[in-house]
Amino acid sequence: MTPDFLSLPQAAETFAVAMPDGTVLPVYGMGGPAGAPVLLFGHANGLAAGSYGPWLARLAARARVFAFDARGHGGARWPEGPVETVFAVDRMAEDLIHLTQAVAAHTGAPTLFYAGHSLGAVMALRLAATGRAPDWRGLVAFEPPVFPPPGARSYAEAMEKQARLVAGTAKRRADWASPEALGQRLRGRGMFARFDEAMLQAHCRAILRPLPGGAYRLCCPPPVEAFIFRSHWEADTWARLPAIRRPVELIGADAAMPDNDWVSSAMPEMAAVIPESRLSRLAGTGHLLISEAPERTAALLLERIGL
Fold first, then answer.
1. Domains, the chain, ordered by start
2. 74 in helix, strand or coil?
3. Which end of the chain is more exposed for a tag (fewer CB within 10 A), N or C?
């Protein structure tokens, strides 16, 4: 199975993994030292594996790195059906089981590390909280959007910001003249103003699929992206966090940043309810911290997994 679009075409190798419902997810191998530990990475909602291309290449200096396009994103293909079924939180989380098994079989590694950002992180925590997570060597979660319960200090902020995010995402512009046009629109705006330039260019190329005639369209349809945001807002993941029985490395952005996401505020409370967790913060960054500070986030991730 060869995807008809690759969000990370410069990868050293590409293969596809089929899910039980017919969804097909591209997996990208970035190479790495022979015999090095294997690291699988999951991206944020609305992004794609290729959004992190320069960062993944940096990690591949120390690990054998693989990344994937989640269902609804990048070069993934998914079956027709209600979004409530195709993109259900547990279905997306269970994709990680099949992806981990496929990468382990492909590499011959008995176990591997998993790191995820935002959506890629909350999928892993959801899986770990249900006791169905693979036997990862380590789990690193960058800014996982686990929605806090009423009574949490961060609840009011999360309610206000998540409602705004869902509404705005549903109205997101889908069609663009080129990746460069999207880059011109994003550059210098909000959290994108802090983006590393190479990361911004990679992101714009990764999330736009070419159309006949030369135009481009977002790989992740705005209604799908909005539903995924809403589904994690409504999920019971927070209540399940105390059931996680593995060490979790949480990496958060700077809650003091004026445009910070609610996740940054919620992370200390989140860490308090995960029995074996450690929270690290990156000063001067927002929710898209990997794209803002690729050198610092790569160094911290490698340190946290012992590389």
1. 13-304 (3.40.50.1820)
2. coil
3. N
- DSSP letters spanning 139-167: EEEES---PPPTTSTTHHHHHHHHHHHHH
pLDDT digits over 251-298, tens only? 999 999 988 889 999 999 999 999 999 999 999 999 999 999 999 999
d(CA 260, CA 96) in angstroms, rounded, equals 28
If phi over 0 gives left and psi between -120 and 50 gives alpha, with beta otherwise, what is residue 9?
A: alpha
Dig out the tokens for 109 from the structure: 């590694």
Residues constituting the chain: 307
For the whole model, what pTM was predicted? 0.98
Distance CA 290, CA 120 (A): 13
Q: How far is CA 186 from CA 94, 180, 225, in A?
A: 33, 10, 18
If you ran DSSP here, which 8-state letter would residue 276 be given?
T
Give the residue among 78, 70, 9, 76 at the shortest CA–CA distance from 45: 70
Q: Residue 228: CB partners within 8 Å, gap ≥ 6?
A: 45, 72, 87, 92, 119
